[in-house]
Structures are given as structure tokens and as C-alpha cells.
Design goal:
This protein is of the alpha/beta class and 333 residues long. It has two domains: 113 residues, no CATH class; 198 residues. Helices cover 49% and strands 13% of the residues. The radius of gyration is 23 Å and the shape is globular.
């Protein structure tokens, strides 16, 4: 038996869906601004041939990628993201799901992250940054490079006890892979009181608006300066703290096309205290970029943690773009 009344209701609902969304989703809603300013279909078109068939209902890659973007934007778990798509009208609209359209369950998001992978996410991160460059959000004159910690596990008492039971004197980086679930993570230290187990996030920050231009992830025991080669900008002056005061670093910066502006160590004969004071003042406003980055690893393994850091950097940049672009448009008019 066909329920004519129900079908009629569905037709009315579908015919007014756009109007309903327009009434319920504010014009200044961040995801609406984001959708108006960036062509997500273009940003993810390189993934469409591999992922357009994802999910039982054939969820498009654009919908899936937008959902992942929201997940990192709001720091949702997979189950929280499932509920957000079901219950949050703004999130449903941004991701492209209709009012009565089925949305994916929590298992979808882990599969999607795996199928996109870190290398493909690097491509999307670069395309997103290029789109921002076209909008004038990157100055490419001054760049600030620094590193911050990513903690995989706060305590390793069980692992230490197992190592001691096996006859080891202590649990150090030489044997830690034999006892931890994350085989890529290591002990790292900034000082005697600042020790952690996990990774380092290395960012290059463009100093026009404080947007992240490059990202690298290493085990926590990797010296900060060794990641410079991977994230050095191709032009402009590059500001770094005393931990990067090595001859090789200056050479890497120059080889990439930049000009080193490293704070010199106090025992460096070339140190100019007035110059270093100026360099410190110039970079100081952008140090907060690193304090706002997530301190805990969401996943295990360096590749997956790199995926996390890339996604978080992309979200960080897009959040800033949502705030900056309207003001830039006002100035231009």
C-alpha cells in the first residue's frame, strides 16, 4: 500500500529544503563563510576517482572531506562527528547532506582518513594554501620556524616495569620500541622539567597573518633544527630561535632561497645583541601559533600523527581566513 500523504509531505519538504537551510543557517556562520570563499569541489577533485564510491550510500568525497574538516575544526571524536551530522543543521548543510538524507555512521570517518592518507592530504593542504595566497593571505616575506611537543602517552609505568623485569636498567629510547604500542614515538626533552613521550610538530609560519605554510612531524628525540630542510620557505627572511643556531641550518635556508634570521647563541662570536633583540620582537606575536596547536596525539604512528597535524594546520588556517577575509573585502571596497 502506498502512503500518498507521506510522499506528498516529502515532495514539499524537498522543494523547500534550500529555503529552510537559508533561514536556519546564519549568514555569518563560519562554515557558510568558508563555503562561500573556497571551492571545495576543486580542492578535493584529485581524490574523486578513488573515493567517490565510499560508503553504502555512495557518499561523495566532497561531503566526506568537509565532514573530516568539521571533525578537526570542532575536535570531535568519530562518534561525536556522527551525531553532529545527524543533529546539527549547520554542519549537515555545510557537508552537503539534505534534511532527510542519511548520514554516515562513526566507522566511515576512520576508513576515509585511511583511504585519503597523509600524502594526499599534503596535496590538499598545499592547494588550500595556494587558494589563500591568491586571496592575499600569505605575504611570503617573513617566516617563523619553530617546534612544539605532541604527547602520545603521559605515563609509561607499565612499560618501564616490563623493561626492568626483562633485566633492563631503565626504559630509554634505545629499547622503548620493544615495550610501547606506538613504535615510532620517542622520549623528547626541552629541559629537565619538560620531558614527554611522542613526537615533535615543526611548523613554518608566514608572518603576514600567522598562517601555517609548512608542516613536518618527527619523533620527539629529533633535534628541532634537523626538520628545517623539510619546511624551509623558498623566499624571504626566516626567523628561528637559538636552538637553530647551526651552520648547516643557515646553508639549508639559503639553498631553499631564503635569508636566515636566526637568534644566535650567547657563545656565538657573530652574535649581535641589538639585532637579536629586534628579531625577537618581530617574531614574538607569532609564537602563539604553536601554543594553540593540540598537544596530544589522536592516533598511533608517525604517519597518522602527521595526518593529524596537517589537518589541524589546515583548520587553523581556515579559521583565521574566515575572520580575516571579510575585513579584507571591506578594506578593498
Amino acid at each position: 500500500m502506498i502512503n500518498i500523504g507521506a510522499n506528498k509531505t516529502n515532495r514539499i519538504l524537498l522543494s523547500t529544503e534550500e529555503e529552510i537551510f537559508n533561514k536556519l543557517v546564519d549568514k555569518d556562520y563560519p562554515f557558510r563563510v568558508l563555503d562561500e570563499r573556497f571551492d571545495f569541489a576543486e580542492l578535493v577533485n584529485s581524490l574523486s576517482d578513488c573515493y567517490s564510491e565510499l560508503g553504502r550510500t555512495g557518499i561523495s568525497i566532497e561531503k566526506g572531506f568537509k565532514a573530516l574538516l568539521v571533525q578537526f575544526w570542532e575536535d570531535y571524536s568519530d562518534r561525536e562527528m556522527e551525531m553532529a551530522l545527524k543533529m546539527n543543521i549547520g554542519v549537515r548543510w555545510f557537508c552537503g547532506f539534505g534534511l532527510i538524507e542519511n548520514t554516515p555512521d562513526h566507522s566511515y570517518f576512520g576508513k576515509l582518513r585511511k583511504r585519503i592518507g597523509t600524502e594526499r592530504l599534503v596535496e590538499i593542504f598545499e592547494k588550500t594554501n595556494n587558494a589563500m595566497k591568491e586571496k592575499g593571505l600569505f605575504g611570503e616575506v617573513f617566516t617563523f620556524i619553530d617546534a612544539s611537543s605532541i604527547i602520545t602517552k603521559t605515563a609509561l609505568w607499565d612499560e618501564r616495569d616490563k623493561a626492568i623485569a626483562d633485566g633492563e636498567e631503565k626504559l630509554n629510547n634505545a629499547i622503548i620500541n620493544n615495550y610501547t604500542a606506538d613504535k615510532d614515538a620517542k622520549w623528547g626533552a626541552k629541559s629537565k622539567s619538560n620531558v614527554w613521550f611522542g613526537y615533535k610538530r615543526h611548523n613554518a609560519v608566514d608572518m603576514r597573518f600567522g598562517l601555517i605554510s609548512e608542516v613536518a612531524v618527527t619523533p620527539a628525540n629529533t633535534p628541532d633544527y634537523k626538520a628545517v630542510k623539510d619546511i624551509a620557505p623558498k623566499q624571504g627572511m626566516v626567523f628561528m630561535d637559538k636552538g637553530y643556531d647551526y651552520q648547516d641550518v643557515d646553508e639549508w635556508i639559503r639553498e631553499a632561497g631564503g635569508i636566515p634570521a636566526t637568534l644566535r647563541k650567547n657563545n656565538n662570536k657573530e652574535k649581535n645583541f641589538d639585532l637579536d633583540s629586534w628579531r625577537s620582537k618581530v617574531r614574538m606575536p607569532f609564537e602563539s601559533t604553536f601554543s594553540k596547536q593540540r598537544k596530544r596525539a589522536k592516533y598511533k604512528g608517525q604517519t597518522k600523527v602527521a595526518f593529524q597535524c596537517l589537518a589541524e594546520a589546515m583548520v587553523y588556517n581556515l579559521k583565521k581566513a574566515v575572520r580575516i577575509l571579510p575585513s579584507l573585502a571591506t578594506v578593498e571596497t
